[in-house]
Amino acid sequence: MFFSAGLSASSVDPPMLGNAKRISGKWVGHYECFDGKTGVTLMLTGHKSGHVEGSFSFYPMSSSADMATGRFVLVGSYYYDGSLILDSGAWIEKPEGHETISLRGKVNPSFDTFTGTVPECFNAEFSLEKMQRLHYDKTLD
Q1: pTM of the prediction?
Q2: Rounded to an integer, what distance in angstroms lies between the CA atom of residue 141 and that of residue 129?
Q3: Which of 41, 42, 44, 89 might form a disulfide with 27, Cβ 3.0–4.6 angstroms?
């Protein structure tokens, strides 16, 4: 095995946190889990430091009309490569028999879609679109 400049094979740079301000806003879509296709709305606030916080609301879609609704806190980090890792926090509205979930995915370069997997649901997929504002806010750059 060849090593250069005193680096070992286990030396890996940690991912760099990116400016998460453009993550801020309302994201709407769905995810798949044990109850089937579920509607979801994220309300996120991103910070220049890369840290993200907000809430995760879930609700029935037309195909799952008898499903419960609930809401919990999210915390996470946004990285320069577009990765967004969101972990669950405390319940705000907990339906009986439900557990929180986390999201692992990528935000596209236009900051209008967020797609990825739900680890607690055997890496089932989720897809979210950012709801656009009526005006452009330069402070989000």
Answers
A1: 0.83
A2: 19
A3: 42
